[in-house]
Amino acid sequence: MDNDMEETKVTNLNESADRAGLIVSVLCCLHCMAIPLLVMFTPSVASIFENPLIHSLSIFIVVPVGLYAFVKNLKVHSDKRPLIIGVLGMAAILFGHFKHLFLLAEHAGHAHHVHTIGPVEIVASIIGGLALIAAHMLNIKLCRCHHCDH
Fold first, then answer.
1. Where does the sequence pass through the membrane (predicted)?
2. Which residue, among 100, 96, 119, has the nearest Cα to 110 in the 3D structure?
């Protein structure tokens, strides 16, 4: 009986990491999808949403939570698909966020470079966020399936 309770606690903890990652990934996608609309309809509000600090904070939440959930649950279900999909999603988000650093190297001779969110960053972030959502949902499904009797 105690073993069942402990297994339930571990399952809930593992699923909590995936749920947190899922929520953050959904918020990230919604944020990225809202930027173009905000730019068109309310440019003053859009400047707040375009702040690179928001994106940096999102990355520092999404990546560690995702890695923790995918690696931890890999030990539970031994299926590498969530980890692979999740890492690809994280790579897309990181590429979108840090692509301006590569552009800075190209344009080193120009005066001031202001980081603005462009279509590449938005598309990469949405694709990466959708991949993370899929990976977390698959991870939850595999963990639940691992603990059921079929």
1. 20-41, 53-71, 83-102, 122-140
2. 100
